[in-house]
Write a structure and sequence with these properties.
Radius of gyration: 17 Å
Number of strands: 0
Structural class: mainly alpha
Mean pLDDT: 77
Number of helices: 8
Shape: flat
Distance between the termini: 40 Å
Strand content: under 5%
Largest sheet: none
Low-confidence stretches: none
């Protein structure tokens, strides 16, 4: 039997407190199967991100527009949760080159770390920021 897909954020929240479904959810995720519908994932990310002032959004968007195409590729892969080694393999560049890109991205976007790149890139790609 295929695992249940949780299409609504409310379904996910309701499933987590119970002991049995939580264990099953862990097994499904560990096996690499999809648990959430893409729409629910997007809604969760948007719901968990604190709102930021419009001026900050605008400044971040302008800074992101000044990134090179390769730096944007690296940002997108960071947002997918890839490590430097994985990014290097995907883009066919060295790990050292990835580190240089990441350092440049952090400086140009004024962000402290990769987690903030992930959150910013996700926010910039969400429908409400366009």
């Amino acid at each position: 039997m295929p695992p249940p897909r949780l299409d609504r954020l409310d379904d996910l929240v309701a499933a987590l407190p119970a002991g049995g479904p939580r264990v099953r959810l862990r097994r499904v995720v560990a096996s690499g199967q999809s648990v959430l519908a893409p729409e629910a994932t997007t809604r969760m990310i948007e719901a968990l991100q604190p709102p930021i002032p419009t001026a900050e959004d605008h400044a971040l968007l302008e800074a992101a527009r000044r990134l090179t195409d390769r730096a944007r590729d690296v940002c997108a892969l960071i947002a997918e949760g890839l490590s430097n080694d994985d990014i290097a393999g995907r883009l066919l560049i060295s790990r050292c080159t990835v580190k240089v890109h990441v350092s440049s991205i952090l400086t140009k976007l004024g962000l402290p770390d990769r987690l903030h790149v992930l959150m910013a890139w996700t926010r910039l790609r969400s429908p409400r920021s366009r």
